[in-house]
Amino acid sequence: MAINENPKSANKTNKTAKAIQQQENATTIKTQNPPTESTINNNKTEIKPEEKKTEAKKEEKKPETKIKKDYALANALNLSMSPKYSKYICNMIRGKDIESAQKMLEEVIAMKRVVKMHGLQVPHKHGKGVMAGRYPITAAGEFLILIKQLRANAMHNELEIEKYIVACKANVASKPYRRGGARFKRTHITLRLEKNLKAENKKQNENKNIKSKEEEKKNG
């Protein structure tokens, strides 16, 4: 008797035989054509490390040449005081060295020195050459603060304070309104330390005269 084979079992055997043949073919191909480094690198998924922040190259900084100032400044804006009083205080301080100006302002605050106010209808004060004057204490206090700031700026700029004098200026600022239509008093003040050119010229002239006299003695 002939035995009939199942078609399912025959299909399974055919599939297994095909799979075995495919594996054998793949192995033969690998042995004939071995993989190169480029193919390996392409197949591998390389994980790139995080890009580090490139530090900016520090340029060689040239030493900065600081320009020395021959003066010192102190400014104040919108001060609540009379521009007339500030003008007369400027006249008192102008042309003085910083130490004498500071002493004068301190004496005004202590009511030991009168600020001359010629041209104003103010009461007379005792003193030599004083026709009219007052003690503007609040204005003198503001000026004293500015003089101290001016001294500090001069020390920062490495100035020889003894050879400098005070130059000052007072200007009328914008006046805000008050109730009833009146206005407040406001002033701008600028203080500046400048070289005492008169003293320098005097010294130069004196030195020239001394040298000329010495030359005359030698020649005579």
SSE map:
Blueprint: H1 7-32, H2 37-43, E1 72-79, H3 83-93, H4 98-109, E2 115-116, E3 133-134, H5 137-156, E4 164-172, E5 187-195, H6 197-219
Antiparallel strand pairs: 1-5, 2-3, 4-5
Helix pairs in contact: 4-5
Main sheet: which strands, in order across? 1-5-4
Q: Quick one: how many beta strands?
A: 5
- CA gyration radius, whole angstroms: 48 Å
State the CATH topology of the domain at 72-197. Answer: Ribosomal Protein L22, Chain A
Q: Low-confidence parts, pLDDT < 50 over ≥5 residues? A: 1-5, 44-48
The percentage of residues in β strands lies in 5-15%
Secondary structure category: alpha+beta
Distance between the termini: 168 Å
Q: Could you say what the CATH architecture of the domain at 72-197 is?
A: Alpha-Beta Complex
CATH homology-level superfamily of the domain at 72-197: Ribosomal protein L22/L17
Number of helices: 6
> Share of helix among residues?
40-55%
- What sort of overall outline do the alpha carbons produce when their principal axes are compared? elongated
CATH uppermost class of the domain at 72-197 = Alpha Beta
**Biggest sheet statistics:** 3 strands, antiparallel
- Overall average pLDDT: 75
Q: How are helices and strands ordered from N to C?
A: HHEHHEEHEEH
